[in-house]
Amino acid sequence: MAVHLLQRRYRAPDGVLVLDGGTLGLSLLPTLEQAREAILVDAIRADGAPGSFRAAGRRRRGPGSGARLSVHQVGVLDLLEAARWRERYPSRLVLLGLVPQSLELGVVRTPAVEGALPRLVDRIVAEARGLGYVFVRDRR
Question: Mean of the pLDDT values across residues 23-52?
Answer without folding.
Answer: 89
